[in-house]
Amino acid sequence: MTVPRIEDAREAVTKKNYKKAEQIYTEILDANIVDAHIRNEKLIETQESGIQELGELYLLQGKKGELVQLVSKARQTMGSLAKSKTAKIIKNLIDLIEHSEFDDAVTATIKVTQECIDWAIEEKRSFLRQSLQIRLASLFYKSKEYNSSLARINELLKEFKRLDDKFSLVEVQLLESKNYFQLKNYAKSKAAITSARTSANSIYCPSPLQAELDLVSGVLHAEEKDFSTAFSYFYEAFENYQIHTDPKKTIKVLKYMLLCKIMLGSIDDVTSLLNNKNISKFSHEKEVEAMKSVSVAHSNRSLKELEDCLKSYNAELTEDPIIRSHLSDLYDSLFQRNLLKLIEPYSCIEISHISAMIGLPRNIIETKLSNMILDKTFFGVLDQGNGWLVIYDEPQRDETYDLNLNVIKTMSGVVDLLYEKASSIA
After folding, report:
1. What one-character-per-residue DSSP string does 349-391 give?
2. What pLDDT was estimated at residue 94?
3. DSSP 80
4. Which of 342, 313, 331, 338 is nearest to 262 (CA)?
5. Taking Cα atoms as reference points, which of 375, 342, 346 lies closest to residue 359?
6. Which pLDDT score, from 0 to 100, does residue 375 have?
7. Domain 341-425 grouped into CATH 3.40.50.1100
8. Using an 8 Å Cβ cutoff, are 32 and 65 in contact?
9. Are strands 388-392 and 379-383 parallel, antiparallel or unpaired?
10. CB atoms within 10 A of CB 365
11. First to last CA, the chain
């Protein structure tokens, strides 16, 4: 039997004759089953390319079922090859499913990955199994199943520590830190990233992985309000992502760098940072323009301008949970400072007047003022019957009361002592 030429399949794809291309690719993959004796090195290379290209063709046509089945077929077709080649083919096909636009792409990828892990265990392919288990833990993280991800991670940590596989250990500890961060267990998240950095120090760490370590470290320090240290980590991550030429992540980290400067109140540093030679080329990106407008609003101490920024750049400022969280803190801080500035000259002021001056609905103003009174940011009371805010001077503690208590306590001690001595004499 003559094996079809892969060039004919590629030509059919170019001409958008997908049915013919699919038929040719299938015949190429089935060649070893029909005539096993003709399976030589050239055929093996052709089949490798054929599997990848057929997967891309299924993806192009949106054939999810066929693409998933192709993974199983690839295991049968290439199972007898060198382990490294089989692993590469399987990982490439899983990549196609994961990065597809199917509605349940992540769920489908989890299922396929689990099947491949079971196959790797049966075939005793330890390295493939380990890499797929890391992939599965990562997929659970992506689908927000953090506890399921951690369950896989705990098993892998024991295995990699026993094998002293530092590189895999760094990957798993980094993923562990991300999971704990999402679960808001910041202590464990910080412990995991510290362990990951310790492991990374003893090996050669590729720049993308080092950038991820710096990024997670920066996020954790920002969560602790240590924005100076966070900025240092973000800057390291920024430089590593530039080396790796990853524009999407580079811009993301740049946003975090600008956020740190804004939260520190160093607005002049934002301008100088954007004039930096390595950073200026990103200054016209919409995400960076969003952060610039936030810095201007913060500089002007204008709550209205910050509100306008959040409306104009809603996607850029609210889709990222890290940016959204810290901007929420910034908004509250700016809101509080604006209110304190407005009520400072008054002892009694109408709430409707405050609402008009600050440009926000009355119910929002009332809620914020009541929270500030409860937090003892200032002393006052809301007279909702008249619609007034009554402000009191900060109460001065009367030290006479404390002094009198001390005198009574001392006298009580003296009387008790005298009573004891009188009792012993009698």
Report:
1. EEHHHHHHHHTS-HHHHHHHHHHHHHTTSSEEEEETTTTEEEE
2. 93
3. T
4. 331
5. 342
6. 83
7. no
8. no
9. antiparallel
10. 21
11. 125
Q: What does the block give as tokens for 241? A: 């992502």
The pTM assigned to this predicted structure is: 0.81
CATH code for the part of the protein at 1-143: 1.25.40.570
| Domain residue limits, the chain | 1-143, 341-425
State which amino acid sits at residue 281: K
Residues in a beta bridge with 392: 379
Report the side by side order of strands in the sheet with 388-392.
Answer: 348-350, 388-392, 379-383
Q: Fold match between 1-143 and 341-425?
A: no
- Contact at 8 Å (CB) between 234 and 257? yes
Cα 120 to Cα 311: distance, rounded to the nearest angstrom: 50
Cβ neighbours of 53 (radius 10 Å): 17
Under DSSP, the state recorded for 347 is S
Which residue, chain included where needed, has tokens 């794809």? 13
CA 197 – CA 181 distance, rounded (Å):
16
Tokens 């013919």, residue located: 20
Angle between helices 247-263 and 207-223 (to 10 degrees): 30
Which mean pLDDT values do the consecutive 10-residue runs of the chain (426 residues) have? 80 91 88 52 83 91 90 79 80 90 88 93 91 95 95 94 92 96 95 95 90 95 95 93 82 94 90 86 89 90 84 88 90 85 86 84 87 86 86 77 85 86 76
